[in-house]
């Protein structure tokens, strides 16, 4: 059997982690033959709760789980890790301005970037889930200069999965038959869920989703808004934010990054922008990517309509503003 991989999950006592740890520990992310050691980071007041999570992981009796390291010390949490799920973040509280949220979180991600730089493996793959995910990932990368920028990503897979589910429901087909939905830009309400390159497999043949749905107005309005506002709809109904679906998306993202995307399919990930599709450079922008041998590549030369261009520009502008605010906060 392979040597165990060390995998850190931050915010390990929180609600997303509660679903994510089980998915990771049972082998859905790194494969059924890959043992893992889970490093669980949370803040000191949560150590009691974390102890309960550790007990439950033991009680799951999972054959691939070769060890669990609960801690409130980033130096211990990030030591020798090959994969990092950065879920822990300061949640938005009532009356909190967006700037206050950004301020609290960029400081957390600066500390975690420094710890990754110092203690993690140099090829560590980092997925930021905690919001604002794109800008947190950018700050984290800035403070981990010895790790390639390509190794810092932000999660837009939940938005992609939501988009895929909406299209499948509209067409009345299983989700598996729908592919190549794109989420462009920021994981925020300015994100652009784009179905114009999506495919649906009907009776073994691929058809463009646009052709199958034949309702451009629905695709440009109801579909886009439903995906953009899905997080808020879940909070309204559940009184808590998406957790099971966020955990599933985080595991999808990391699995594809480690094990590769299927031929003919692409997925969306927030990655360091090289200016593809005229997106601003050096922000973490969600693009369609394919992955081989642990390396992602932005899918090129997809057509961009005038409608799409406007939305791509708006989400890019928001990311530039967030970057500027974050840098001001951190350098103050
Ligand atoms: N990118 C996405 O698609 C997506 C989707 C859903 C949620 N989120 C975000 O994920 C984050 C976590 O959500 P949740 O529902 O699990 O929240 P939660 O409040 O249940 O859990 C967060 C945990 O993080 C911990 N934490 C806070 N600061 C920390 C630090 N410095 N180091 C380590 N741990 C720390 C908290 O103590 C808590 O246990 C939130 O920021 C949420 O907005 C992102």
UniProtKB/TrEMBL annotation:
Record domain Lactate/malate dehydrogenase N-terminal: where: 6-152
Lactate/malate dehydrogenase C-terminal domain sequence ranges: 156-326
SUPFAM superfamilies, alphabetized: LDH C-terminal domain-like (SSF56327), NAD(P)-binding Rossmann-fold domains (SSF51735)
EC supergroup of this enzyme: oxidoreductase
Catalytic activity: (S)-malate + NAD(+) = oxaloacetate + NADH + H(+)
Pfam families: Ldh_1_C, Ldh_1_N
Gene3D superfamilies: Lactate dehydrogenase/glycoside hydrolase, family 4, C-terminal (3.90.110.10), NAD(P)-binding Rossmann-like Domain (3.40.50.720)
Alphabetized UniProt keyword annotations: NAD, Oxidoreductase, Tricarboxylic acid cycle
Active site: residue positions: 187
InterPro entries: L-lactate/malate_DH, Lactate/malate_DH_C, Lactate/malate_DH_N, Lactate_DH/Glyco_Ohase_4_C, Malate_DH_AS, Malate_DH_NAD-dep_euk, Malate_DH_type2, NAD(P)-bd_dom_sf
Binding-site list for substrate: 92, 98, 131, 162
GO terms for biological process, alphabetical: malate metabolic process; tricarboxylic acid cycle
Transmembrane segments: none
One Gene Ontology molecular-function label: L-malate dehydrogenase (NAD+) activity
EC number, UniProt record: 1.1.1.37
Binding residues annotated for NAD(+), in chain numbering: 42, 105, 129-131
Similarity remark: Belongs to the LDH/MDH superfamily. MDH type 2 family.
Protein name: Malate dehydrogenase
Gene that encodes it: 109544302
């Amino acid at each position: 059997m392979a040597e165990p991989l060390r995998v850190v999950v931050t915010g390990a006592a929180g609600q997303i982690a509660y679903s994510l740890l089980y998915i990771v520990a049972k082998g859905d992310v790194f494969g059924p033959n890959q043992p893992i050691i889970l490093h669980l980071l949370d803040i000191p007041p949560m150590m009691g709760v974390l102890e309960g999570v550790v007990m439950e992981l033991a009680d799951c009796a999972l054959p691939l789980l070769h060890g669990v390291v609960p801690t409130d010390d980033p130096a211990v949490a990030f030591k020798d890790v090959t994969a990092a799920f950065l879920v822990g973040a300061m949640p938005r509280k009532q009356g909190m301005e967006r700037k206050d949220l950004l301020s609290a979180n960029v400081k957390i991600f600066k500390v975690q970037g420094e710890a990754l730089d110092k203690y993690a493996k140099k090829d560590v793959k980092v997925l930021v889930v905690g919001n604002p995910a794109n800008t947190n990932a950018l700050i984290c990368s800035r403070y981990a200069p010895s790790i390639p920028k390509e190794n810092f990503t932000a999660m837009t897979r939940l938005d992609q999965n939501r988009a895929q589910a909406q299209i499948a429901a509209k067409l009345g087909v299983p989700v598996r038959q729908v592919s190549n939905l794109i989420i462009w830009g920021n994981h925020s309400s300015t994100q652009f869920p784009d179905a114009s390159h999506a495919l649906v497999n009907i009776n073994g043949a691929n058809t463009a989703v646009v052709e199958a749905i034949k309702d451009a107005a629905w695709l440009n309005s109801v579909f886009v808004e439903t995906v953009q506002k899905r997080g808020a709809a879940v909070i309204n109904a559940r009184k808590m934010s998406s957790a099971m679906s966020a955990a599933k998306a985080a595991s999808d993202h990391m699995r594809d990054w480690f094990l590769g995307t299927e031929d003919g399919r692409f997925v969306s990930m927030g990655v360091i922008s090289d200016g593809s599709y005229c997106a601003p450079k050096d922000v973490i922008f969600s693009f369609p990517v394919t992955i081989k041998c642990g390396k992602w590549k932005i899918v090129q030369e997809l057509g961009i309509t005038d409608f799409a261009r406007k939305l791509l520009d708006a989400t890019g502008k928001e990311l530039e503003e967030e970057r500027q605010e974050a840098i001001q906060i951190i350098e103050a």
